[in-house]
Amino acid sequence: MPVNALYRDDFYLSTCEAVVTAVHEDGGIELDQTCFYATSGGQPGDTGELERADGTKIALGQTKHGASKDIIIHVPLNGAPRPEVGETLVLHVDWPRRYRLMRMHTACHLLSVVCSYPITGAAVGEEESRVDFDMSETIEKDEVTAKLMELVDQNHRVYLQWITDEELAANPDIVKSKNVRPPMGLGRVSLVCIGENSSIDSQPCGGTHVSETQEVGRIHIAKIEKKGKENRRFRIRFGMPGDEA
Q: Where is the Alanyl-transfer RNA synthetases family profile domain (predicted)?
């Protein structure tokens, strides 16, 4: 059954109550609502725990979508207890991990502002993220880092706006990615906006983000790799060169 994905409206919600609606043969758990982000758009799904009424914990190894985007499956680690349908659980997201992913994902959006080329691929990670651009130009990583940190330090607001699937279909140019389509099919699509009145950026994205650019913290471009004649891969890491995150 469709799940109420609470994280879509509150990226900072790390705990909530939910009722088990299905338990799959492989152990996957469906809930009536969840604050756990499901793997999508290059961002890994959340990990954490589901707490039962008696205090025992069901440790989760991943969160993923089912056959459609309105189904979210919470996958326990091997050996974890199996809940019953109808049971009420308290969900606890691994917040330090999620917050790092939020900071990283927002950093990737800032990179797409600094490098305004079509995106051919991306992957958000806890320690390092990558964004691939359809570009042949040569650019220095220190120059990109300086421009990224300028946007971070200006502390622009990051917020969501919602548009309908039809509005997105009528305005395809707002999609920066060449080969990953925005999360459509739920009736509405979230635009991640940076800066007042989207003055810095606005693009469809279903991932989780921080609320202001300063929260991203210190980041740098660790490497720019040539991946074909017209493709460049940028690797983003926390901290500055030589720093610890």
A: 1-245
**What residue type is 243 in one-letter code?**
D
- Which token pair is 190? 């979230």
Contact 183, 69 (CB under 8 A): yes
Q: Where are the domains of the chain?
A: 4-93, 98-238
Count each helix (H run) and each strand (E run) in the chain, helices first.
3, 15
Higher-confidence position of 243 and 31: 31
DSSP string, 90-158: EEEE-HHHHHHHHHHHHHHHHHHHHS-S-EEEEE--SSEEEEEE-------HHHHHHHHHHHHHTT-BE
The SS3 of residue 149 is helix
Residues forming a β-bridge with 57: 51
Total-model pTM: 0.91
Report residue 185's pLDDT band, with 50, 70 and 90 as the boundaries.
low
CATH code of 4-93, in short, is: 2.40.30.130
Q: Please report the pLDDT score of residue 4 as a whole number.
A: 95
Which residues have CB under 8 Å from 54's CB, separation 6+? none
Tell me yes or no: is domain 98-238 CATH 2.102.30.10: no
